[in-house]
């Protein structure tokens, strides 16, 4: 099974929803919202947050993105500079590096696959959250990594 | 058993079919090529595909409809609302072909359709807004100066907001006069214009009438001031703006207007209401979108009465039989984008209407239905009934929250926002309500934030497999049709 992961490092994301700004930190499967770790389970048409389920009626990406949740409208946007300020890519989970697809000094585009990480028999594509030049690669193939270990850095 | 052709589509066709079955009439239907999967077909005993997709190729094509009626052996036709419901020519042709049209006589229809004549007759018994038809630009200037700005320009033979211009100064008048004339000519084939004093931010209140020439009664009023671009979105009855005294006045005046016009069948007399005064606006010669709220507070089936009047059986009720009970409200749920308000046809992924006592849902939606781009964006009407207005507001809020329409955006968030607005809760609103409205959402922004954060991982998580339903011709037309709808404000029935 193959899974895609956007790895945002431990940078804080600021997301604005209907005029309120939320601090969101994404680390693989773990989401921290305004400093509080939350358990999120997203399925086709609902989302369960800390055991409470909400219906997702409609989503449309844009600026702002439009969401209708339980019949209510949410306009969501993110601050532009968030992802371009990511300087380190960290491991989203414990696992084993099965492939490194970039070299030091290489220019990468946003969403380009950087590293393949195997965890619990699942191959995870670690994709780049930004465009930029890879400064250093801190891991080697077949190395085991722990959640939060730095994998590579940007210039 | 007699057969009746329902010359319409969607929810109103289904609603009419239900009454037909109750009256032991056999409901028959028509559908366009774009409506092959429309639910109304299932509610008809027989239905004929009349081809076409655009209204003028289908539900507005008189020849095709008469042909269908003959093929299906129907000797009655119910036009529903919109389409041919107020087309005098259609009424005439039905008559000529020996088919009973469920609606007013040709003369009554013609009179209701001519705003100038209707106003003239109504002015004998009702307060009207100062103004008249103008013959030229010079005439328009003279009249506007006499009655004072602001004034409004309207198409004599038009409706639905087309040709409407509000003019605040002399300088604006020339340009507005020309463009109103042109638009009117393009839309209605007539460049007759009339000008009247513009009543700023009035309330819109209408009275439901039933008349069979020997008997005439009213079914109370409907408050329809929650509008956007002259399109009604929420209606309620009774109106929170009327005292019992005003209610008695407005309903009595409405009955007098209908009498003067010698109007028969179900009709609606529309008024503007401002500073405690009401002014006659027009008579709508059809069943209206918002008729269910009147039905739930009176217990009268308006379609049933329409059929009885048209078939000569006559009204089976008197004014004394009408007992108004409780309060009712209708939210019109349209498929439209919550930001641009542009009609947003698409595939309905999940459709789960709210259930419960005193909740009525008139709709033709179902899970998996692909909303065609050619017709009105109204996809569902949610009607709630209760003992008091407050009770209805609470019931409506809960019903809206429980209403699942997924895959497409709708006006549900809009309605939730209105129901939380202090001005609406207090019943103190007019047609300008929307200008100062704020979007309401419970303080659960973190849910949206969390979903947003998760989206990059599951970009396609809500997308339905549209490939199977892809229709290139449709896709090409989509942009054009959306623009057409937005520009012409097509959703203006009722």
Summary, kept brief:
The complex is a heterodimer of chains A (155) and B (494). With 155 residues, chain A is mostly beta strands.
Q: How many helices of chain B?
A: 15
Task: Look at the helices and sheets of chain A and give the structural class.
Answer: mainly beta
Shape of chain A: globular
Report the biggest beta sheet of chain B as strand number plus sense, adding barrel if it closes: 8 strands, antiparallel
What does this structure look like?
The complex is a heterodimer of chains A (155) and B (494). With 155 residues, chain A is mainly β. Chain A contains no helices and 18 strands. Chain A folds into 2 domains: 2-6 and 83-154, Beta Barrel (OB fold (Dihydrolipoamide Acetyltransferase, E2P)); 12-78, no CATH class. Chain B is an alpha+beta fold and 494 residues long. Helix content of chain B is 33%, strand content 22%. Chain B has 15 helices and 19 strands. Chain B has helices at residues 10-22, 62-71, 88-96, 106-113, 115-122, 137-147, 170-188, 244-260, 291-298, 302-310, 389-402, 412-419, 422-425, 445-454, 472-488, and strands at 3-6, 26-31, 46-49, 76-78, 100-101, 131-134, 151-155, 165-167, 193-197, 203-211, 216-228, 231-237, 265-274, 277-284, 327-334, 350-352, 359-363, 378-386, 404-406. Chain B has an 8-stranded antiparallel sheet. In chain B, strands 3-2-1-4-5 form a 5-stranded parallel sheet, sandwiched between helices. In chain B, helix 3 (88-96) packs antiparallel against helix 4 (106-113). Chain B is globular, with a radius of gyration of 23 Å. Mean pLDDT of chain B is 89; it is low at 457-494. The A-B interface holds A 4-6, 13, 15, 17-18, 20, 22, 24, 26, 31, 33-34, 38, 40, 42, 44-45, 47, 49, 54-61, 65-76, 78 and B 337-339, 349-350, 400-401, 403-410, 412-414, 416-417, 439-458, 461-462.
